[in-house]
Every structure is written in structure tokens, then in C-alpha cells.
Amino acid sequence: MSLTATSRSEDDHQDLDSHHVKESNILDIRSGGTLAPPETTGDRTASAMQREGCAPGGDDNTVYPTGARLALLCIALCSSVFIVALSNTIISTAIPTITSVFNSYDDIGWYSSGELITACAFQLPFGRFYALLNTKWTFLGSLIVYLLGSAVCGAAPSSIALIVGRAIAGIGAAGVIGGTFIILARNVPLRKRSLFTGLIGATFAIASVVGPVVGGAFTTKVSWRWCFYINLPFGAVAVAVILFFLPASIGRSSPTLKNLTWWETVKRFDPCGTALLLPAVICLVIALQWGGARYPWSSGRVIAVVVVFAVTFVAWVVLQYFQGDEATVPFSMLKQRTVFAANMYTLFLSASFTILVFYLPIWYQSVEGNNAEESGLKMLAIIFSLTFFSLAAGGATYAIGYYNPFLILGTVLTSVGAGLLCSIDIDVGLGKLMGAQILCGAGIGMSLEQCNIAIQAVLPADKMPMGVSLVIFTRTVAGALAGPIGQAVLQKTLAQRLGQTVASQVYGQGGAVDVRAKLGMIYGDDTPALRSALDGFNDAVTRTFMVAVILAALTAPFALMVEWKSVKKEKREIGDKIEREEQKDEGEKEKVQRTDSPSRDQSV
């Protein structure tokens, strides 16, 4: 028997992943190793793949799940995203009841921010987990942690227990959201991926908007505890499907990562960077939640938290710079044009979306006097619009191969729709409200998830988890930033129009709960003074919509900056360049070894 040496010829039409497979299968005779063929379409019969619910992925010879298996995975991922997104807003209408049960008004801010803080803090570290560990078990672990946190919240005997449960759920949520897109990227070809990310994006948006309605229904008709218990059956189904139908794939996709030793793997987790990043993100979110709301920005507590954030964040940035490609967020990745532009686009559009979905229900409940369920029904326009255009844009991207047109059009439609909302008053017609919501939903739906596809199109497989985690982290931070900004604008305008005393009475405690009733108690029912006060509140809310317009408009230059790269081409040229630079040293070492032992490359 004889084994001939494998030649290293570059084929311009060869996919990067296929190139890696061939490189990793060179038999090292010196170590006495055995050849384990990779799982490609050439190694398996068509009937075998059909029995397993798989199909060839196209140019890269990767085998992807199809049919019922793919459908079940998609349902499980959508269920996971739905319960995580639902928990972000479902608690908003339950907070007044929870505070009365626990007599814990001082803890209101922690009920909403407890999960947000840990979700932000652990998002980037989870990118490393998915890059280095088993994708299936990392996702399952994240989902189980999230369900554990939900169970703690539902059974919480005290306010502190509820806050702890929210923090635990936030850790799991960080792994679930990022892991969903990473699983899609590893189980769906790039050219079809926009279809599925559109569905995931629509699921997230629907859950975010219907959350207050569902929370209000549970609180008034069953118990506020079911705002958390509802996650358990959905999560259990997702766990079962993922357990039996998701392949147990290892995150390491390049030869460099596959050959890491145990200690090298530990270092790739960037423990020092994580130790600096966690307190930095936690302090940032706490400062945003406290500043101007619970404490003035000039208070010692807020200043101390900001200082800790600044020191730890600067130290983290310096560490990331010196760590190079082993950093949690490599600077080389941030310098890539599309990665930078897509993250900035996500930052501004997500912040605009957060303001719209948070302050539109406040307008309905405060100015029109609707309850949570009624305001939720009036939000159906933006829900249906966002869902339809998210799916339609995914299909159109699959058809034409480019996501750029939807980024540009999304900027225009969102800006116009939010601009229309700036002009509403207490006598506005329902048609104008619905039209503005449809435009906003269309713009956000068709564009937001395209950023994820753009990043996946330009990054190599082993850097894709970090890229996905970065864009999810950006989206989470955008939500954390948008809330305090909108709150500051609203409170300042209310103080100017109604006076500080009245503004504090109607909005200072419990937020926008029974605002119209409180104003009626102060000014009397159906009086000119009440109408003037409602005009003032209307002006305050529409000022926040002006912030949404500005944020949406700021996405324009970044929409133009994203590279025009077809998702129909599985080969990623920019990813090729990054991967080849990483393998340069490895190739030189092999040449030296072959020079030292020329006889070992001959026939045996």
C-alpha cells in the first residue's frame, strides 16, 4: 500500500470550508495516525442523508438538516427566542401588582434591569463559548439556566428572590439569543439564512410587543407569577427538540482552533478580559438605570458607578488590543468595514425601535386612557407590519442575493414613520396612527436582521460566533441606552409643561400607570385644564418620538458603508484573507518539518 503526499494547490473557485476539510485530512505518517474521513456529501449516499433529514449544502459540501428535522429545529429556536423576548416586556404591566405584594417600591428598577444587566454582561463571553465549545450543549445549558431563573422568579417569596431570579435568567438569555443565530448559521446555508433570520427577528419583535398585553392578562385574571411560569412549558419543548434533533457539533472549525491544547483553550476564553468586561457592563447599565431616575447624575452613587465603569472599560480595551486575535473582540474584526457598519446600524436602529415600542403604549394609556390590553391591540399594526416585512425581506434577500437595498429602504421608512408619530396630538385619527406604525414596522422589520446576515457573509466560520455575539451585544446595549434617553426627554418636557410637582405626581411613582386618572384628580374631569395637561403629556411623548427619528436617520451612512456581497456565493473572500493569515505560520512549520524528513513524504 502507498500513500502519496497531498499537494497544496489553490483553487480560486474552491470554498474556504472545503479547503479546511482537505487540509485537516493530511495523514501524518510519522505519528502513526489513522485517517478519519470528514462527513461530506461524497462520503454518504443520498438515501442515507434523506433518512437522517439532511441534504448537501451546496458549494462547501457541508451536510445541512432539511425537511421535518429543520422545521423542528426552527420551531425550537423560535420558541426559545419568544420566551426570552417576552420576559423583557411582560413584566411591565405586572410591576404595580408585584410592588404592592412585596411592598417594594424601591426595587422597581431592579425588576426590569436585573435581567438586562446580566444579559449584557455575558453576551460577549458566550461568543467565545460557542466558538470553542460544543454548540449543542452550550445552547442547552443556556436555555436550562434561563428556565431555572424563570422558575425562581415565579416562585419568589420575596423581592430579593425575584431580582436574583431575573439575574439568573439574564445569564441564560445571553446564551440563548446569540446561540440561536449561531445554530442557524451552522445548520442553514448562507444563501438561505436570511429566510430564517427574518423569522427569528419577527418572533422577537412579536414577543416584545405582545409582552405587556400578556402580562396584563395574567396579572388581572390569574397571577403575576404566570408571567414567569409561562416560559417553562415552551422551554421544555425547545429543550427536548434541541436534545434529539440538533447535531452535537464542535465550535472549532479551523485547523488552528482544532489543534489547541487544554491550556491554550482556557486562554482563548480570555478570563482576564471577561473579569474586566463583566463589572464594566454591569456598572454601565446600573448608571443608566439610576442616573436621572432614581438618583440625580450628580449623586455620589451614580458618579462612583460611572468611575468604576470607565476604569474597567479602559483596562478591558487596552487588554483587547494587546491580545490580538485571541481577544474576546479582536480589533482586526472591528476594523472590518461591514462588521463596524452593521454594528453601528444595529445600535441606532435598535435604540429607535426600543423607544417606539416603549412609548407608543404609554401614549395610548396616558393620552387616550386605554388599558394595557387595549393599547396592545392598537399595537397590532406595527406587529403585523414588522412580521410581514421581516419575512418578505428575508425571502427577497434569498432571491436577489443582496441585503443592502433593505438596509437603505429600512432607514427611510423608519425615519418617515417615526416622523409622522412626532406630529400626532390628542385628536389624531386612527388612520394616521396605524399608517405611521405600519411604516415603522416595515422599516425595522426589513432591515434589522439583515445586519446579522451581513456580518456572517464576511466572517470566516471560526469568527462567526464572535461576530454574532457582538451584534447581539450591540442590540442589547442599544436597548439599555434608549430607555434612559427617552425617560430623560419625557421627564424634562413634562416638568416644563406641567411643572415639576405635577409631573412627579403623575409619572414619578410607578411610571405611566393611570396617568389620565391622576390628571383627572388634579384638574377635574372634562375641563379645559385637563385638556391642556393632556396636550402637555402628548408633547412630552412625541418628543421621545423625535429622538427615535434622529436615531433612525443616523443609520443612513452605515447602510451605505456595508459592502455589497452576494449571499448566493458561499465563498467568503474577506473571510478567506483572515483565515489564510492565521494559517501562514502553520504552513511554514509544516514546510520545515518536511524539509527535515524528506523521505517521509514518499511512498510507503
TrEMBL record:
Keywords: Membrane, Transmembrane, Transmembrane helix
Topological category with respect to the lipid bilayer: Multi-pass membrane protein
Cellular component annotations (GO), alphabetically ordered: plasma membrane
Biased segments, Basic and acidic residues type: 8-20
Domain Major facilitator superfamily (MFS) profile as annotated: residue spans: 73-567
Transmembrane domains' residue ranges: 70-96, 108-126, 138-157, 163-184, 196-218, 230-250, 271-290, 302-322, 342-364, 376-399, 406-426, 540-562
Molecular function terms, GO-annotated: transmembrane transporter activity
Region entry Disordered, spans: 1-20, 30-52, 569-604
Subcellular location: Membrane
Coiled coil: none
Pfam family, one: MFS_1
Predominant cellular place of this UniProt entry's protein: membrane
Protein name: Major facilitator superfamily (MFS) profile domain-containing protein
Species in which this protein is naturally found: Oleoguttula mirabilis
